[in-house]
Specification:
Layout: E1 2-13, E2 16-22, E3 34-35, E4 38-40, H1 47-59, E5 63-75, E6 79-90, E7 100-106, H2 118-129
Parallel strand pairs: 1-6
Antiparallel strand pairs: 1-2, 1-4, 2-3, 2-7, 5-6
């Protein structure tokens, strides 16, 4: 089974975190589920570079990448994901959703109301412990 390294931007503003909804996909287990923005680490990239690139590509937005929050590993039916989260701050201006259906700013207490992708659900639980 393939292992994919992915990074997530846990973007915090005014006590709330940015949550984004994935588009429909052929993978029912992730289709239209919620996640923290980010993406796959490409060969030759560090996590920091990946986050800046992915947020720019998916949201046409600049962020400030802060400290590493932790890593979760999850086995999906056809691959294993190693998902590393970083605490981030939003840059100037607002984002534009280019690859997601929706976005919400939520508190930690509000997050369980969303239908999260399984790996991201583990990140939500990890955030509650920090």
């Amino acid at each position: 089974m393939d292992k994919i390294n992915v990074v997530a931007a846990v973007i915090k503003r005014d006590g709330k975190y940015l949550c984004v909804q994935r588009c429909r996909s052929h993978e029912a287990y992730n289709s239209e589920r919620w996640e923290f923005p980010g993406g796959k680490v490409e060969e030759g990239e560090c996590d920091y570079q990946t986050l800046l690139r992915e947020i720019k590509e998916e949201m046409y937005w600049d962020i400030y990448v802060g400290r590493k929050l932790g890593t979760v590993v999850h086995d999906y039916p056809d691959f294993t994901i190693s998902l590393t989260a970083y605490l981030c701050k939003p840059g100037d201006g607002d984002f534009t959703l280019l690859e997601h259906l929706d976005a919400r700013w939520l508190t930690l207490e509000e997050m369980p109301s969303l239908n999260w992708a399984d790996a991201d659900r583990k990140l939500v639980e990890m955030l509650k412990e920090l």
